[in-house]
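User: Hi! I'm working on a homework problem where we have to compare a predicted structure to a textbook description. Could you give me the structure for the chain below?
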Amino acid sequence: MKIRLKKNDLVQVIAGKDAGKRGRILKVLRDKGRVIVQGVGFIKRHTRPNPQRNIKGGIAEREAAIHVSNVMMVSPDDDKRTRIGAKTLADGRKVRIARRGGEVLDK
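Assistant: Happy to help. Predicted structure tokens:
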């Protein structure tokens, strides 16, 4: 599976319990086909206290990875979700483009 999303891309969740939420991508897990989106898909993690590492025990909430098919890129010009394509510019650089408006996503 080809993942065209990158870190710091603004995406919108299109399926699941967090459908409609938006956030920036914190990490792309290419081998698993998943992304971690800021503020989306929280899970509770039970941690045991460890005084040697200075870890306080308890229940911590953090973002879980969600499948890349459940998120869509948000177009920077019209603030609507769009698919991503690739294009080669005149100077030979290969860049990502938004299918909705055709604007270049990589600067």
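For your comparison, note the following. The first strand starts at residue 10 and ends at 13. The mean pLDDT is 93. Good luck with the assignment!
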